[in-house]
Amino acid sequence: MLTKSRKLLVLIGIIVAIGVVLRLVAASVGYNYDFESYKIVADIVLAGGNVYSETARYNYGPVWFIILGTIAGIANLTVDPELAFRVGVVLLLTFSDLVISFILYKRYGLFAGIFFFLNPISIIITGFHSQFDNLAIAVGMVAVLIYSQASDSNNRRLMVAALVLLGVSIMVKHVLVFFPIWLFIREKTFVRKGASLAIPLLVFFAGFVPFLSAFESIRENVFLYDSARNAPILRSVMPPIISSVLDPKAFMAIGLILSGLLTRKKALFEQLLWYLLLVVIFSMSILHHYLVIPMAFIAVYPNIFWIIYILISGFIFTLDKLGMGIEQMIAIAPQQFLFIYSTNRIYDIPMLFLFLGLCTHLIFSTQGKLVQEYQARAFRSFRQKIGI
């Protein structure tokens, strides 16, 4: 007879197994331009070259190409290096998803952890696209948890260590690059304000020092890199009085600064979740993998509009260009969802539902508490029925 704790472990094990298998199934469909770039980058690393000077297909700090080179080096020891490299990348990113899921589970309950790990956006972005936004987010979440604990105990060394780790997160990928500004707004003393802004950004920039022989390439392909510039919320949701006056960069800057001011009194980890949602809402560029960034917030505070957002996004991920290219899905897709007809405007509809979900969350100010209470009751009932 299994004890309740063992039954819970079995349930979690089944969920983890399902999530891992689904990601590997998504990976088996194929890969896109980004993964081809990973292979190019890994080959450069293994050959001892400077990634920034030898390809324009890499737009991030050095952490990710070091990881790619390491995985490729291990894969080359196997009988099928290409397959091993593919699986190795997916498993690493799956582990990142698990770290986020575990943190959400510990802080917000089992439902949030399961929701995050099994939602189709996370599964397809990790499995098929193998984009590494969630690796940066996982590192950032750990950094914020450490910083929050250190701040409460006034442990300055631990605070500095957490800020360094936040810089590493930004070096992995620039998802949290504006979060130090929120910390600057949040902190009350001059020293803490300066440290919270300067240390993560200095760590980020320091990562490029060994590669400064390719400074021009770094400047062009990393610091000045410009993505889709489609700004769905500004162009399609905001009234003309705003969209006609602000360009996408100004809209993003103003939106994030105001958001940092409005959320500064929230618990630090809660503020991080808000950042992950709002950085996408105000983003001047949206592509497939950006849609995974708000999923931690959505897993904690789901509503009907965000469920629709997930379903539409998952559908778009099966289609042409950046999607999985599944012919049966392409055949039934409206033209608004097909890249061949709408290019980067395909994100307008899912982003509209992301925005509507935000409006719903703000209107029902007690929603967060009510949702978590409902989740807790539902899972208590579920666990009682299965005896865990």
UniProtKB/TrEMBL annotation:
Q: What is the superkingdom listed in this entry's lineage?
A: Bacteria
The portions of this protein that span the membrane are 58-77, 84-104, 110-128, 135-150, 162-185, 197-218, 238-261, 273-292, 298-319, 346-364
User: Is Transmembrane helix given among the entry's keywords?
Assistant: yes
Keywords from the named record = Membrane, Transmembrane, Transmembrane helix
Protein name, entry field: Uncharacterized protein
Which species is listed as the source?
Candidatus Dojkabacteria bacterium
Recite the lineage of the species. Bacteria, Candidatus Dojkabacteria
